[in-house]
Write the structure tokens for this entry.
Amino acid sequence: EADIYQTPRYLVIGTGKKITLECSQTMGHDKMYWYQQDPGMELHLIHYSYGVNSTEKGDLSSESTVSRIRTEHFPLTLESARPSHTSQYLCASSVKPQGMTEAFFGQGTRLTVV
Amino acid sequence: QKEVEQNSGPLSVPEGAIASLNCTYSDRVSQSFFWYRQYSGKSPELIMSIYSNGDKEDGRFTAQLNKASQYVSLLIRDSQPSDSATYLCAVIPGAGSYQLTFGKGTKLSVIP
């Protein structure tokens, strides 16, 4: 069973505000991911991390930044929120049981910028 | 070029029928393949993973992998209305890569 948590679940915030979306997992997974998904649309990888102090940008350009100071924690920050950032943000982590990778998602944060 | 392709659907099947979902991928060295189910407004849920050619069965779900044809499929037997969701195919492309790349998803509707 996956133990990956995202907070907040829902956030409505004004334009120009700085926000941090939290993602934590208690499974000791070394790989973590952030995806962005608009309603009814596909998932886009925006950031990923292979371990502590390792972060990379994904396929979709994003104005957000991430950090990985601890294995269990992978927060995403928007320095100045804009209405175009309105979307669902999904965090995932993966592990390789017996050499095979499996990835699990948190419940997501639905962000609305007004 | 999109690495993972799925028919977006919608795919409609009657209750009790077999639903067949298909996915193709472009990277020949891909080694890990997954099917996720996503209900509207929810996050994706891992339902099947497959790594070797052939079939893998788990309850009503069967994943099929054909690496030569770069094709992976999901069969849902005895489809139920609760199976109505979007099914996402995901691939980890290339040896040494851990990036999980998703297709656009196929929306399945099971009609009572």
Chain B is about 0% helix and 55% strand.
